[in-house]
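Bump. Still looking for DMT family transporter structure tokens.
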Amino acid sequence: MEKLKSIIWVFIAILSIQGGATFAKQLFPAIGPEATTFLRVWISALLLLAVYRPWKQGLSRKAIFAVVLYGMSLGAMNLLFYLALERIPLGVAVALEFVGPLSVALFASRKARDFLWALLAAAGIILILPHTDFSQSIDLLGVLFALAAGVCWGLYIIFAKKVGEHIIGGKATALGMFVAALTVTPTSLSHVHFAELDGKIWMMAFFVAILSSALPYSLEMMALRSIPEKTFGVLMSLEPAFAALMGLLFLSENLNGTQWLAIFCVMAASAGSSLTAHNVTPPPQT
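Sorry for the wait, here they are.
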């Protein structure tokens, strides 16, 4: 039952993140990806700190070290992904970013069937990418940003599990988001012109913070206490498919047959992984 709840939390987190990404991309023409990242992460951090008040919990040195690594990877992932999203389409950016979680799923695998699910998800990600004149149609700097974000995403999954061994979900997310906000500040603050931010921008930034950070990362931290990194990583391979569907529903982006096949692959991989995972032991609460 606990495992089923965790899987549902992951699905809700995926929907929330992709909805937030559509809002965020609409902010780029007005304030740019750096300022959007700054507002998103700081608003999320302040909200989570107010809700969970993590300063009431004593932290060991190991816990502090884990939170710092978790937060730094989280902040870098957010900034790099938005820099990629400015240059390449949402579905492509999400697919390329999956180098991280797929690597975690692959390296954590211990059984042949888990390896096959990871390969099926990888096939879906490859299929969802454009294959005609790739070098001419895709901004290569955007591709590099997306791949770098993927590396940070993989680290985030690993460090989130470590943090979960020391701190209960919501408090860990709040502390990690605060570290993430500090991480992005040096490179993003100069891009924020507060006098030019009107009510509409603040409202959109607030929705981006809720949908892209505060809600999904809290859900993911809770889920990671009940499912291993490999299962979490393959479940999250639904992200490219959801990104493509968001493009269809909200951006009028039509999907071709290859892209529908890609959606089937990643959904089948996620379903297979969730059905065949056994003996999931939550980390100890300390």
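Residues 2-276 form one domain.

Edit: fixed formatting.
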